[in-house]
Amino acid sequence: MNSTYCKFAFNGIHWDSNGRTAPCCTFRGPDDPRNLSASEYWNSEWLADVRTKMLADQPVAGCNRCYEEERMSGSSMRNTDKADVENPVLSRMHITYSNLCNKTCNICRPYRSHLIGREYQKIIKSDPDNVWMKDKIVQQPYTEKTLGTIKFKGLGDEQLQDIASHINNIEQLYVDGGEVFMDKEYFVKILDIIKQANRQQHILLKITTNGSFTQEDLKLLEDHRVKFMMSADGIHELYELVRSPHDWNWFADKMQMLEQYPQHDVQIETVMHCFNVHQLPDLVEYWKYPVSLTMLFHQEYLGAHICPDYVLEESANKLEALGRKNNAQYLRSCIRKDVQKDKVLFHEFIKTMEPVKKLNYQSYIPWSFDLVK
Question: CA–CA separation, 17 vs 288, rounded Å?
């Protein structure tokens, strides 16, 4: 396998809630197709061009995030397993079907949480010249578009028909949002399609969730093969800062509820950023489940490099001792990375969001924000 090949281009499709259709959820190219059916996408000239470049060991613009992750940490989401490149089969579907969410996490954006869209609207209304917000709209133009819509869905009846038509070949179906369990109409329909095809034990259903399920929701999934990808960027007191507005007790109760269904797999999904770098080793040790630590993209003012060097070095050393060499390598790549603009925007973010969230950010963090100069 070469340096640009990825299996996802030969076995998968991702529908984003903003209409983007691509091989995976991290793909971001300059000309990504939008609102295509699975068949249209699978037979498109666009996808054929992506595959041709990969097989010729040529860079693919939409894969830059994985290339960057590999440069900084030595690993990425890019899947280099073998695929049938002569006769590709659509066996992996990933659906981001809504931005409805009950959280306003610091590292998230309006197209993943409609509540963040509402926060942004209030900020713009009260402070139209807000430095942090004006830069965000320039750097992430889609932010302004989502502010006009606030709530939107990327999944409709056409996509459901596509799922049904390919269901016998599907081996993995990945759903996320928003928050999957906040917008269950289409989720229940997807479960019905799987059941009608008698594929509950043949399809691995991956669900990214912040834990907003009920006992009724878990009962619906009882007969399915499920892997819960639990989003948690902090433990104990830090949780309410990084995953507002809920506190640690709320999340611990949800995890306890999930333990009643031991037939399901569970993985903790954590994004590394400036608010949790100091806690990453403790977080890895705390969970009895596998923990995935991923880099933060598109919100550089909250990147790990904002932390003082001694915090990065200390956590890197501890992670390496825990066998997390790639994560340690990434944190060390952030040491002495001095991006003045990011530091300015970090302070502007704190100044803006503290009154919005009614939280004192510094009180949760052991290192002084005054060190970010």
Answer: 32
Dihedral through CA 277, CA 282, CA 284, CA 289, nearest 10?
-140
User: What is the DSSP secondary structure assignment for residue 77, as one 8-state letter?
Assistant: S
**β-bridge mates for residue 189, sequence order:** none
328 contacts 319 by C-beta, under 8 angstroms: yes
Are 349 and 97 a contacting pair, CB within 8 Å? no
Give the distance, in angstroms, between the CA of residue 114 and the centroid of all CA atoms in the same chain.
15
- At 67, the amino acid letter reads Y
Q: Do 118 and 108 meet the contact criterion of CB atoms below 8 Å apart? A: no
Radius of gyration, alpha carbons of the chain: 21
- Going from the first residue of the chain to its last (373 residues), give the mean pLDDT of each consecutive group of 10, the final group possibly shorter: 88 86 91 88 95 95 91 86 91 88 92 89 92 90 69 69 90 92 86 95 96 96 96 97 96 97 97 98 98 91 96 98 96 91 96 96 98 92
Which is it for strands 21-22 and 92-96: parallel, antiparallel or unpaired? Answer: unpaired
pTM listed for this prediction: 0.92
The position carrying tokens 């396998």 is 1
Task: Give the phi and the psi of residue 44 in degrees, each rounded to 5.
Answer: -80, 150
